[in-house]
Amino acid sequence: MAPFEVRPALARRLRKLREEQWPDVGITQAQLAHALGGAKPLSISLISAWENTEKPVIPPVKRLNAYATLFATRRSVAGGVVRILPQEELMDDEQLRRKELLEELLLLREDHAGGSQRGTVDTWRFPDDEHVTIVCARLPEQLRKNLTYADPESADYVSLYTYADPDALIELYGHIRSVNPQNQVRFLTTEELTADDYTTHLVLLGGVDWNTVTRDLFGRVDFPVQQVGRNDDAEHGGFRVEQDGEVRLFGPQLDAQGRLLEDVAHFCRRLSPFNRLRTVTVCNGMYGRGTLGAVRALTDVRFRDRNQAYLQERFGGEESFSIISRVPVVSGRSLTPDWTLPGNRLHEWPEKATVGRS
């Protein structure tokens, strides 16, 4: 059987929204077709096809955005007229409801389209038209002063040479752009951020030693993982957690000559303390190869599906979660961590997560 014949959950949900969200209103398919189409009403047969559990048709993402906006507020049916309010007119609670509903519909759409259950969801996919800002540390001045390409006065100046973690940045920026074609995605150093940038979806690369926004975030929020800088309590630093009633420090492994054998990576996501309708994601390591490992866990084509599936099963409906993992370093190169292997996972939070969404 074709995939759409065995995955009718999205069709059922769309019909249920129309018929049961406000049962006293009784929204018809014709009214919904007019509301979703705006100046060019959709056909009633198309709405029917989206709701048909026998042979459902997959709605475009932009139509699911419209569904989420419409059913986020009862004001959409005020006065007996079904219409979609401009998104900027939604109140905070309505914006939150819209976000939750859109996430649900997109998850159902992924499964509907024939993906491998939850493994097809992409943590790096954001709702359309919501800006994303990747924040990097600026390479410290003492490391830039002898680099001709990092000198703005040089004819050979290249701004990317002033960024810390450029390999992680290039890997992540390309992936986020590819899965969010409708979004503005930018990357900036901490010194280039404006007040408005803080209220977008933030993705922070690098740790507390150089990235001041990462440092500020962990100083503002109550989080069970704290990063110990390389010049603080431990020679090479690490991530401090309380586990089984004991305080533990997960740090990198170096040989006697100071060569990095294994870094430690921290991947975490939470609601933003600067805008509760946006998120903050941190990809962090004690060294650059740990940061790259945190990024590649969900971008490397060989590992991202299985790691994404693990996140969905383990953390499903959690708004805030984190995972600390090993990042082996071989011949100076970091290897992508496989989160499905228990030995690679050093710490996970919450300890008891909810069951993944269906």
From TrEMBL:
InterPro entries: Cro/C1-type_HTH (IPR001387), Lambda_DNA-bd_dom_sf (IPR010982)
Limits of the HTH cro/C1-type domain: 13-78
GO MF terms, alphabetically ordered: DNA binding
Lineage top rank: taxon: Bacteria
Entry protein name: Transcriptional regulator, contains XRE-family HTH domain
Organism: Amycolatopsis tolypomycina
Organism ancestry: Bacteria, Bacillati, Actinomycetota, Actinomycetes, Pseudonocardiales
